[in-house]
Amino acid sequence: MVQAYILIQTEVGKASAVADVIAKISGVIKADDVTGPYDVIVRAEAETVDDLGRLVVAEVQRVPGITRTLTCPVVHL
User: Fold this and answer.
1) Where are the alpha helices (H) located in the chain, listed in sequence order?
2) What's the gap between Cα 40 and its chain centre?
3) Whose CA, among 36, 56, 58, 64, lies 20 to 30 Å from 25?
């Protein structure tokens, strides 16, 4: 299982709505709206890195109100 944090920037005033929609996507563990340079932080998991990429591109990035994402895979060193 591959896990990642997805850092999301949204249009002004859209963070809460974006987090609510993303929280319902299969593979999303948690979605929180936050303050700082990013508006929403998501914890997600998928079977493979390719599946994770598909989750981000095909599902998360299509949510209205998102302007930019940054995916940070979790590593175990």
Assistant:
1) 15-23, 49-54
2) 7
3) 36
